Amino acid sequence: MAERGEAVPVWLSSEQKPIRGEVPRMNTLVIEAYAAEPSRKQLYRVDDGFAELGSEAPVRVLTSSGGTVAPEHDWLADTMLSGPIGGIFGGEFVAEELGIDNLVCSDVGGTSFDVGLITEGHYPTRWDQSLAQFMVAIPMTAMDTIGSGTGSYVRVDRASERIEVGPESAGYEVGYSNRDADVDVVTVTDCTLALGYLNPESFLGGDIPVDRDVALEGIREQVAEPLGEDVHETARGVLDIVERDMSNELRGLILGLGYSPENYTLLSYGGGGPLHAAGYSRGLAFQDVIVPQWAAAFSAFGCACADAAYRYDRSVDEILQPDFSNASSVAYALNDSLEDLRERAEDAFDRDGVDPDTVEFRPSLRIQYLGMLDDLEVEIGEVYDDEEGLSAEDVETVIDRYEAKFDRVFKRAAKSPENGYQLTMAIGVGVAPSPKPTIPDEELQGETPPEAAHTGTRDIYWDDDWHAADLWRMRRLEPGNRIEGPAVVEAPATTILVPPGYDAPLDENRIYHLREQGTGGDVL
Amino acid sequence: MSIENTKVGAEKRRVTDKRTNGGEIGWDDQSLQRMLADTERLTEETGYYRGIEDLALKEEDRFEYERLYSRLRGALVSARETALHVSASPIVREIGELCFQIYTPEGDSIAVSTGIIVHVHTGSLAIKWMIDQDYEHDRGIEPGDVFCNNDNDLGNVHTTDVHTIVPIFHDGELVAWADGVTHEADIGGASQGHTSIVHTSRFEDGIYATCEKIGEDDELYQDWKVRGERATRTPMYWDLDEKCRLAGCHMIREAVHEIIEDVGAETFKQFTREAVEEGRRTMESRVQERLFPGTYRSTSFAALPLEEEGWKPEQKQDTMHHLPVEMEIRADGTMSLDMEGTSSQGDHSFNAAEGSMTGGLWVSLTQCLLHDGKVNDGSHYALETHFPEGSLTNPDDPQLSFHAPWGTIMPAFQAVWENVSQGFFARGFREEVVTGYSETSNSVQGGGTLMESMAQIIPDEVGDYFPVSPFDLSCQGLGASAVRDGLDYGYAMWNPESDMGDIEEWELVQWGTQYLSRQIKTDSAGHGKYRGGSGWEGVMTVMGTDDCTLYKASQPDVTFSKAGMSGGYPGSTKYAVRAHDTDLADRAREGDPYPVGDTPPGTFEEHIDGDVTRTHRGNYFPKEYDNHDVMHFQMGGGPGWGDPLERPVPKVVGDVEDEVYSPDTVESVYGVVGEFDEKHRDFDLDEPATEAAREEIRERRREASETFEEFYERERERVADGDVADVVAGMYRDAFDMSEAFETEFHDFWDLDGSGF
């Protein structure tokens, strides 16, 4: 282009994103050129704006694989779609701070239920995710989504006489009961309102005027009467369906990784998470169900937990013989790729003015049995030597780790070491630690909450009956307090439902532990 | 791995004790045969599944019932999601040709996972066959057993669909069956590939597992594994796919055990039966909701031009298959599907067993009528089918080949879809209309071995053989609806979830092949007010191989299967071009152009020197491909809906600019005239010329119009004189031999008095 005197920017996916799969690679390139590149100017403007206001910290953007990058980063497409997964990084931070090995991060929003799993301290990265229905070659923190949220529409299918929930949603318009919106169909929120779980006076701090009678009337007319059912039973039945879908999703994901719910703690956040957590965790026997007091803003909190990190990937396609007879040549080829990735990460930090000595290099490999199509990511930081790279023996160690992971994730019966191995991708992440938020650590007070926190009682419907629930104002509660169900803990942007037979102690970190009584241990 | 200390081991001991004492494995100490007979009798007598008039569980607690359903289906879906990772074959992994079902003890499906839904009823037939053959007393059905079936005649779609079936026991009783099915890349056989058009009999089809017990104590028999290793060309895929099916079935079994633990065996049993009855009722109310009652008819045709291509004497003939479909949609929501008048079975691989046809039915109805995923055998009970015995759609000879029944299913269901679409249209659901689809071909298949120098890096266990069976074919043009154009290059009738896959992924599996291109196939989409989705074409070469054969299964071949609807045209037919002994290597060295397509047809040869073969026929039997030989293949377009002259001109301009249609074509069909600047993709519309061209088309139509009576009389004379192609006359003669009723009706309609063919 220079020879022709043309000022045309050139992107080469083969250099910047050498990842197998021409369609996702091409889509990513187009997204980079068309959508991500123009955002660079915007980021500079934000940076300038902050500088003018006196900020000395540089603006950094979260990537979908978990670290932050400078606006100068050569592949800004990596930053697409980082918002919704912020909660998972927050989960990782909380897990590390509190010493939780396995954590399920679950977020109930207006339109969807999002889940990410942190297993043995790590969240997996996936390549098969899509962006606005385009397949992309962007490593993304694994998050699964189903179209069930608080705003999901509830309808009766007249032919099958079945209740259908979602996937369409009223979203921010909340529901039929919102007198300021023009929603014709009842939603999940209308059901929680009808059952007494939500306070109609203070929905989103009172900014949205919802009317419980309107909700009840809508549910009666649109759902209960066509089915010939009682209106409250119907509302609870809707929540059962929604929460069962959510539990199915959780169960499937956890079993899919070769674990069971007993191995995990469930973290619930988002505006609707704490309201539905008791419902969707039922029957799954999690070790613990936790709700941070800052649940409503947890995803934003998560974004602030990320380190500065540059991740580079490269397809390699090395075939390793089943008897490891070519392990040295495989090690040699891998070292070549990993070294290149490390240089790229170091260059990025060099550009940002970060001292290379503070940068940690975290290499991984993606591996599969030859002929299989599903590779697994194996971290090799512990065997990789920064000077020497991998040796032939190291390759065998790496394969041992791969096989252990394979056993767990897939069924042992499918192990096929006789086919040999294919090392499909080399991954290098340079990480420079960044300042982190702190989790509150406060002195424990008594079990009994202060009188000032109690705002009254409201009847709630649970397990086919009405119960008088205590209402608590969240910000007035103190660490050490134990909320006994039936109770509702209210904050402007979220509500915790503590059903009859449950309690919820608030610990020194301002995290609630939702327990079905008689099942949980003493956490305080 | 021993099952001794597992729940399955304990169940096995319990069942063994029970059997020793003369007990039965069915519910309440009945035999499975007795259960099956009762179910059939009660259903027949009452019109309700097993006589269940009240859905007691659902009525008592609708929400608990829904929870159970969603939990059971969730288990199937999650088994599929997990098991997918185990499979190696791209057909399963990338294309998703994997499905899990759960059946009642008597073999009625209760729920189905996502995936290739075609198998709702196939496992059912196989289980019922095993019960009928008294496996429970003879071969034995015990906890930990594993059965396998791919015999179409006993319940399958095509021979390369392989089922793993596992019984689930609780408390000494068989409470359910889990069934997993995958589509194999190769099962041995006389020719390579998953859907061979070469075979003439069962003896050429490859491995047949005829409801065979292949394992016990959760382990596969050694001899069964050895057979798979030695009898398929791709033993690794065979092995891993089998592991994938078995792992999924075991996950389903665990989930059923958990559910029973939670709700109790009685509730589970009652639930499974009510779920089937509920499926029946839902189907009926859905039909009442969406379709206008009446009798609907349509006919599809499938050409099989094998006179030149055929290998065996008995297959060397050009034939055409007659696939008439009459559907009755009744006001009470029941339906019938009748294929009286269908062509006879034959010495080719297109024989479709009853299981294949019901498979086609379910994969169709789940797309147009039962989209909520809650489909099961209840729907089967709401619909009567008649596939005439001894015909192409229900052969009575198990010795025939059943390798490529899709060559019959796909055209036949074009007629089914037209009938159902007319029913939607009559009811006012224009959006639900689908004019049909491009059948999934060209299917490129074959295989080869790598050159010695290339083969060295492949571990011995894997071998140096590579299969060629890309699933490019899963991206065809879909037909138009009555409100919008069909989906472009993105649809497969048998699995709407599937995807063509990345070239770079396919090349990783098909070591000896290299793609040279993929591009839109101009003029493949059926014309109409709403056009069909476009097809596409590709070019492939062979490199680094020692011995490679490739062939192409093509449909529709030299005829259309069916027209579009309401004045719409069908999509284009297919053809074949290939080049052997080429100068591709020189071109690559010199940087000269090579063929990236054949648009307009005839241009392929402009960019390659060699021995070029071009035939009007789309299919050809396996040919040897040397390195640098070049193959062209194409995927078809869907049929259109409505008169092309009603298509808004700006849309036609867009079609040219998107290379869906060529300027010549839009001028002759749509009367749209202009200059196309190919480089800038800009079509400069000539409005006065367009107006004149459209008027000219209308004028031509006015001149050519005639009354129905005139048309009928003219056609009647042709029929009476036998003035049709020999192949067409032969098709009718064969249909008359098959069905006196059809012959009588045909002769009455054309008022033939014994004349004609």
SSE map:
The complex is a heterodimer of chains A (about 525) and B (about 750).
Chain A (H helix, E strand, L loop, with lengths): L12 H4 L5 H31 L8 E2 L5 E2 L16 H13 L4 E6 L4 E6 L6 E2 L3 E2 L2 E2 L4 E2 L2 E3 L5 E6 L4 E8 L18 H7 L17 H16 L3 H26 L8 E5 L3 H9 L6 E5 L5 H6 L4 E13 L6 H26 L7 E10 L6 E4 L12 H18 L11 E12 L21 E9 L2 E9 L8 E3 L2 E4 L4 E4 L3 E4 L5 E3 L1 E2 L8
Parallel strand pairs in A: 3-12, 12-13, 19-21
Antiparallel strand pairs in A: 1-2, 3-4, 4-9, 5-8, 6-7, 10-11, 13-24, 14-17, 15-16, 15-17, 18-19, 20-23, 21-22, 23-25
Chain B lengths: L6 H14 L11 H15 L9 H5 L1 H23 L5 H4 L4 E6 L5 E4 L9 H11 L3 H5 L5 E4 L2 H4 L5 E10 L2 E11 L28 E5 L2 E2 L1 H10 L3 H29 L1 H26 L3 E12 L12 E12 L5 E4 L15 H15 L8 H5 L1 E4 L19 H22 L15 E8 L1 H4 L9 E4 L34 H7 L3 E9 L13 E8 L2 E9 L22 E5 L3 H7 L20 E5 L4 E5 L5 E6 L13 H9 L5 H8 L3 E4 L4 E4 L1 H18 L3 H14 L4 H13 L1 H11 L7
Parallel strand pairs in B: 10-11
Antiparallel strand pairs in B: 1-2, 1-5, 3-4, 3-6, 4-5, 6-7, 8-9, 9-10, 12-13, 12-16, 14-15, 15-20, 16-19, 17-18, 17-20, 21-22
Helix pairs in contact in B: 4-10, 9-10, 10-11, 12-14, 19-20, 22-23
Shape of chain B: globular
Q: What is the average of the pLDDT values of chain B? A: 93
With helices defined by DSSP (H or I, 4 residues minimum), what is the helix count of chain B? 23
Overall SS class of chain A? alpha+beta
Q: What characteristic shape of chain A results from the CA principal axes?
A: globular
Count of discrete alpha- or pi-helical segments spanning 4 or more residues of chain A: 10
Uncertain spans of chain A = 520-524
Helix content of chain B: 25-40%
The chain pair forming the largest interface, with residue counts per chain, is: A-B, 47 and 50 residues
List the strand order in the largest sheet of chain A. Answer: 9-4-3-12-13-24
Q: Count of DSSP E strands of chain B?
A: 22
Number of DSSP-assigned strands of chain A: 25
